[in-house]
Amino acid sequence: MSRQLIANYTFADYATFRAAFDRDSEDRGRNGMTLLQLWRENPTSAWALYQISDAKAAQDYLSGAAGVFNAQAGVSAVRSHLVETA
Questions:
Q1: What is the pTM of this model?
Q2: 54 is in which domain, residue-wise?
Q3: How many angstroms separate the most distant Cα atoms in the chain?
Q4: Is the dihedral of CA 15, 65, 34, 47 positive or negative?
Q5: Helix, strand or coil for residue 2?
Q6: How many domains is the chain partitioned into structurally?
Q7: What does the pLDDT look like over 4-50, one tens digit per residue?
Q8: CATH number of the domain residue 63 falls in
Q9: 45-79: burial string, b at 16+ Cβ within 10 Å, e else
């Protein structure tokens, strides 16, 4: 069974978001999250699909340490869903 996490980010400026997102790659990786795909929905929204190797670490990161990333990236809201292949 494989786990993925789908996240929707709302932000003020895509360039600021993307630069911070790229810088945060190593931190996400240390927390069990590997980016599979990033989609830009519109100028203030993007979706990310992650492969999850450690669900607890990923959820702990999203509810805590990701706050630093969110502040640097200008993120005003994040919605995420942990899913498994059926």
A1: 0.91
A2: 3-84
A3: 36
A4: negative
A5: coil
A6: 1
A7: 999 999 999 999 999 999 999 999 999 999 999 999 999 999 999 99
A8: 3.30.70.100
A9: ebebebebeeeeebbebbeeebeebbeebbbeebe
